[in-house]
Design a protein that fits this description.
Distance between the termini: 60 Å
Largest sheet: 6 strands, mixed
Radius of gyration: 20 Å
Number of helices: 6
CATH class: Alpha Beta
Length: 160
Amino acid sequence: LKSSGQYQKRFDQEKQKIAELMRNPPAVVGLAKAQEIRIWPLEASIPETLPESLLRQAASVEMPRISRELIFIDGTDKEELNAAKAIAEKRPDSRIVLVNGSIGEASRTLNRRIFFDQGGSLTRLFGIHATPAILFNGTDGPSGMEFPPQEVQSVLSNPL
C-alpha cells in the first residue's frame, strides 16, 4: 500500500474527516427550540445500583454550585446566537456550549471561545430538552432554564 501511494491517500482522507468533525461535530439529537420558559432544579444523578446505605448518604448530599453559567445554543440558529451574545455581553464569565453548528463560525460571530456538547452528554446529564438553555446558580441551588430566544431581554432583566 505504501509503494502504490494508497496508504498516504487513505491517511490523508482520514485526517480530513477528523478535521471536519473537529470543525463541525455531529449535532445533539432530540433537542427542540424552546417555545416557553421552563425552569428546573439541577439534581445530582445517583446510580440506583448503589447499596441502600450509600443511597441514603448520597441523597443527603447537596448539588454543588456550578462554577460558571453555561449557555446551550444551536449555532445554526441566528436568534439563538443573538440571545447568547446578549447574555455573554452582560455576563462575560459565562461559557457558550453548542449543540449544533460550526465551532469556528460561532466563535467568530460571538467573538469568544466556544465549547461543544459532544454526544449530548451534558444535555442529558442536566435534563435539557430545548435550546437556548442556561445553567445557573439560583437562590435554591443550581438550576436550569430554557427560554424562547426572543425573550432574552426578560431573562436578562431577571437576576438568575
